[in-house]
Design a protein that fits this description.
Layout: E1 6-7, E2 10-11, H1 22-40, E3 47-50, H2 53-56, E4 60-66, H3 76-89, E5 99-102, H4 106-118, E6 122-127, H5 132-140, E7 144-148, H6 153-164, E8 167-168, H7 171-178, H8 187-194, E9 205-209, H9 214-225, H10 227-230, E10 234-239, H11 245-251, E11 283-286, H12 289-303, H13 309-328, E12 332-338, H14 352-357, H15 363-374
Parallel strand pairs: 4-12, 5-6, 5-8, 6-7, 9-10, 9-12, 10-11
Antiparallel strand pairs: 1-2, 3-4
Helix pairs in contact: 1-3, 3-4, 3-7, 4-5, 7-9, 12-13, 12-15
């Protein structure tokens, strides 16, 4: 290797300088300021204690962190904010160029919100099965939607970004690294700080589902980062049908592929995503889709409101863990998430015709959940 030697008081090495466009730098500074100002105006999401006397009497408390109250209506609001800041500060999101994302709906809605906030075009590449209400929400926020086959969303998103000179956000790759998992008011820090005055302040279990894997990665890492206070806390990830995450966790195979996508929008993937980190997960549960749908119908009778299908997956898994804890005579708390509201799913998860068309028999499952809630 050639050594650099000083010549005439200077170093004789090669250098390159990219001219800085002042307008581009000003755009990034203003965009970051707008996103941070939007965050400063936002309150934290509420942690709801689900009042189930049969659980409380045995020393088990169940909590739902309500992520549906974000301005864009879902848990994905946190991810979208992180992805935009990550892309801006890396110099990938440019003035006047579109942002493109492959998304089944909720992430696209949240990214459309932030694209409008900083004045950029947004294009969502979504599966053809995406709920009409989600498409309308993206368009209401100024975005456009390109519908394609579930297995083609990645390639189409990359192609559209290349053709338009835009930035492919690629949530499935960057979700786990865009979020500061050590704190900065991420979902883990928020959740655990809200638990500090509860009788079981360090949860026995945190239960989440996986779409990109970003939420489970953030929470799993944070638990390990705070061993003094969270040494007994375990992370359980629940997975729907038509998803490879459970099998990947069990077998370690990375080349798993499915031809069909998940019927529970926003979670479950037909391939293993880079942001899904199984090593931070303590347990996985595969939840039947019929159970996910039944759980949101049962939950409506308890909360008095509708929630999305992924919330049903979360709640069903949390109740299974609670039942196991009761059987072993254990006490503690379980925390899971309300991912989004159910209003977006009225034509599907809350439509008896759609439920029958899927071959779901949810009435017996609802009866089992009601019987469990009455057990004392």
């Amino acid at each position: 290797m050639k050594k650099l030697k000083p010549q005439n008081g200077q170093w004789a090495g090669e250098s390159a300088l990219l001219p800085l466009d002042r307008e581009d730098r000003a755009f990034v500074a203003e965009a970051v300021h707008r996103i941070e100002a939007d965050f400063a105006r936002s309150a934290d999401t509420h942690l709801i204690k689900l009042e189930l006397p049969c659980l409380a009497a045995t020393g088990i408390d169940l909590y739902l962190k309500d992520e549906s109250t974000h301005p864009s209506g879902s848990l994905k609001h946190r991810l979208a904010r992180s992805l935009f800041l990550y892309g801006l500060c890396n110099g990938w999101i440019r003035r006047g160029k579109p942002v493109v994302e492959a998304s089944s709906g909720s992430t696209a809605i949240s990214e459309a919100y932030f694209a409008r906030l900083i004045g950029l075009p947004f294009i969502a590449v979504a599966p053809k099965s995406t709920a009409k209400a989600k498409i309308e929400a993206i368009e209401f926020l100024g975005g456009s939607v390109h519908l394609t086959e579930p297995t083609a969303i990645y390639a189409d998103a990359r192609r559209i970004a290349a053709e338009t000179g835009g930035h492919y956000m690629d949530q499935f790759t960057f979700a786990e690294r865009a979020t500061d998992w050590r704190g900065n008011n991420n979902i883990a820090e928020s959740l655990f700080s809200q638990m500090r005055l509860e009788r079981h302040s360090a949860p026995a279990w945190v239960v989440v589902s996986a779409g990109t894997g970003g939420t489970s990665s953030t929470i799993g890492r944070y638990i390990r980062y705070r061993p003094q206070s969270l040494g007994r806390t375990r992370l359980c990830v629940v997975d729907p049908e038509n998803s490879v995450f459970y099998e990947h966790f069990r077998s370690g195979q990375r080349d798993l592929r499915l031809e069909c996508g998940s019927r529970i929008e926003g979670i479950g993937r037909p391939q293993v995503e880079l942001s899904f980190i199984p090593s931070v997960i303590d347990r996985m549960i595969r939840v039947p889709d019929a159970a996910s749908i039944a759980a949101i119908h049962w939950l409506e009778s308890v909360l008095g409101r509708k929630c999305g299908g992924s919330t049903g997956t979360n709640v069903f898994g949390a109740l299974q863990l609670a039942d196991e804890m009761m059987g072993r005579g254990e006490t503690g708390s379980i925390v899971t998430l309300i991912c989004d509201g159910g209003e977006r799913y009225l034509p599907t998860y809350y439509n008896p015709d759609w439920i029958r068309a899927q071959g779901f028999e949810i009435a017996p499952i609802i009866e089992r959940l009601e019987a469990f809630a009455r057990r004392c």
